[in-house]
Amino acid sequence: MKKKFSITVDKIPSIICFILLIGLYIVTDLCSRKTSVSKDMFMIFSHPMPIASLAGVFSSISTIIIISLVVFYRKNGFYTSIVILTLRILKLTSGILHFHASSFPAIFVTLVALISVILIYRRNERIQSVQEKHRKELVEFTDSIIDAFSVCIDGKDSYTNGHSLRVAKYTKMLALKLGADKESAQKFYNIALLHDIGKIGIPDEILNKPGKLTEDEYEMMKSHTYRGYEILKKVKTQKDIADGAQYHHERFDGKGYPARLYGEKIPYVARIISVADAFDAMSSTRPYRKKLPMDFIVEEIKKCSGTQFDPVVANAFLDLYKEGAFDDIRTE
User: Fold this and answer.
1) What is the pLDDT, as a whole number, of residue 8?
2) Phi-psi region at 69: left, alpha or beta (left = phi > 0; alpha = psi -120 to 50)
3) Residues in CB range of 146: below 8 A, 6 or more apart
4) Backbone angles phi, psi at 41, to 5 degrees
5) Domain map (residue ranges) of the chain
6) Helix H segments across the chain?
7) Contacts of residue 319, Cβ cutoff 8 Å, sequence gap at least 6
8) CA 158 → CA 163, 204, 273, distances in Å?
9) pLDDT tens sequence across 167-206
């Protein structure tokens, strides 16, 4: 709910500007009409000028405002402008029927403004359509590259094949449960897909060792977080993509690695991946044990809430479990 409220607040300046533009249009249009019928004079540098000459100035300003609505507010601005210009044309047509001389040039200017608004809107929509198409193609390309990398990562470890994909799936589920929008949840999904990319640099004999790791081997295994960061830190299009790889083994109580971060100092996405990663590890068969019963996993995550895991994320997992989100996970 907080997120939705913040989005509404973010739109307030834009809405205020929209209302101000409409108000400014009404003022300038009114000034244009008032000055066009005035017989009075005013002085500019000691030279008398008819006030009626200002009608064209105010009319031009109001036309600029109409075009600005289309440029800055796209569809809403376009429909608003069409309504305004249509009403103006109807009023000027009435003036023509009553042989008001000032209505003839005014209706011409209005028709030009109407055509301009339509042309600008159509061109902007075409540009937006092309840009959106390119954006989607870039997103699809990026997603496919990330998917390919995740397959390579999981292929290194014969015991955890599909691990990255499952962790990404659980991460997205948790993100949505925690209130993320679809775009943010998909972003977290991609970050989670690459959370173990650093394992590419871990020797196979350590990665696939069936027995317990020695202290040196364990230190080497732990280095996959730093290796992952080194690989992903150069990705500029998504600045936080390296956070999942670097910090998914941090603990909420500060006893994790590699930086011993604690609490909310751990990046949000890494706190979510931590729960998703632990869940998949416990619900999968590993070289040293069979996969664990679901009841045991749930109790373990509950027990580690506030120590290993962010309690908010852990609670989101527990809520998903109660809702049956993990019913397809078979246990032995």
Assistant:
1) 52
2) alpha
3) 190, 193, 194
4) -120, 160
5) 10-132, 157-322
6) 2-36, 54-97, 103-156, 163-177, 182-193, 204-207, 215-222, 224-232, 241-247, 268-282, 294-303, 311-322
7) 177
8) 10, 10, 21
9) 999 999 999 999 999 989 999 999 999 999 998 888 888 8
Q: What is the pLDDT of residue 257?
A: 93
DSSP letter string, 8-30 = HHHHHHHHHHHHHHHHHHHHHHH
pLDDT score, position 210: 77
Averaged over 156-169, what is the pLDDT? 77
Is 305 in contact with 315 (CB distance < 8 Å)?
yes
**Cβ 85 vs Cβ 62: under 8 Å:** no
Q: Residues 319, 177: contact at Cβ < 8 Å?
A: yes
- Strand 41-44 and strand 47-50: the pairing is antiparallel
> What are the structure tokens assigned to 275, written together?
């729960």
Per-residue pLDDT tens digits for 59-117: 888 888 988 898 888 888 899 999 988 888 887 787 666 655 556 777 777 888 888 89
* Angstrom distances, CA of residue 247 to CA of 106, 167, 222: 66, 15, 11
Direct distance between the N- and C-terminal alpha carbons of the chain, in angstroms, rounded to an integer: 39
Question: What is residue 209's DSSP assignment?
Answer: -
Banded pLDDT at 36 (limits 50, 70, 90):
confident
CATH top-level class of 157-322: mainly alpha
Type of residue numbered 45: F
Write down the mean pLDDT value for the chain.
84
d(CA 282, CA 34): 78
